[in-house]
Amino acid sequence: MYEPNVVGDWQEYGEEHAGLRVRVHGLEKAEPPRGRDDAAEGLTYVRFRVTVENRTTAYFGIHLEDGQLDIRVGTDGESAFLDWRNSQFIEGFDVYPLRRVTAVLYAAADEACLGQVDIQVQLKVDDEWTHRYLWSGGVDLREPAVGVGARPEGAGDSLAAQVTSFLKKETGQGPTA
């Protein structure tokens, strides 16, 4: 069974691009630097990064633009708005040995859906398409949970609440009641 990466994990490429790896990281709420797009009215912005690292002795030409990313949010996997005007893509950059290159991207979606964010990336390396990889994560996973094991009606059903509750239980920081 194929399992997605967790936001922050590195994904190694196979034989055709051995030594090249990529990761999606830094998923957080953030306002775009050049102002909000009119199409994102009423939506909450998030920022994330896609970093490509070259661990070989040769260089790779990397290309990553808006058509090579797909951002889905919520349990139904609804499409998020990718703000290409505020995003900084990687357009034909040669990544030399032991170097990295990072794209900073802005997307917007309904705030209620940001507890589950899936980001799919397909790089173009030296004019060849790579395999698509998926990263899953969420925004505000550190929000306080209702309580360890406690799930009042309608509360604690989000991925963020479940993860927070589990982590508190594991570290012994659950409620002392």
Protein described:
- The structure is a single chain.
- The protein is mostly beta strands and 177 residues long.
- The chain has one helix and 14 strands; from the N terminus they run ββββββββββββββα.
- A hairpin with a 2-residue loop joins strand 12 (124-125) and strand 13 (128-129).
- The longest helix is centred in the C-terminal third of the chain and has 13 residues, at 159-171.
- A five-stranded mixed sheet has the order 1-14-11-6-7, with no helix packed on it. A five-stranded antiparallel sheet has the order 2-3-4-10-8, with no helix packed on it. It has a four-stranded antiparallel sheet with strand order 9-5-12-13, with no helix packed on it.
Features:
five-stranded antiparallel beta sheet; 1 helix; 40% strand; 177 residues
Q: Which structural category do the helix and sheet elements fall into?
A: mainly beta
| Cα Rg | 18 Å
Taking all residues together, what is the mean pLDDT? 86
Strand neighbour order, sheet with most strands: 1-14-11-6-7
Number of helices: 1
How does the overall form come out from the CA principal axes? globular
Distance between the termini: 41 Å
Report the major sheet: 5 strands, mixed
β content, as a range? 35-45%
Low-confidence stretches: 143-155
The helix/strand series, from N terminus to C terminus, equals EEEEEEEEEEEEEEH
Helix content: under 10%
| Strands, total number | 14
Gist of the model:
The protein has 177 residues and is mainly β. Helix content is 7%, strand content 40%.
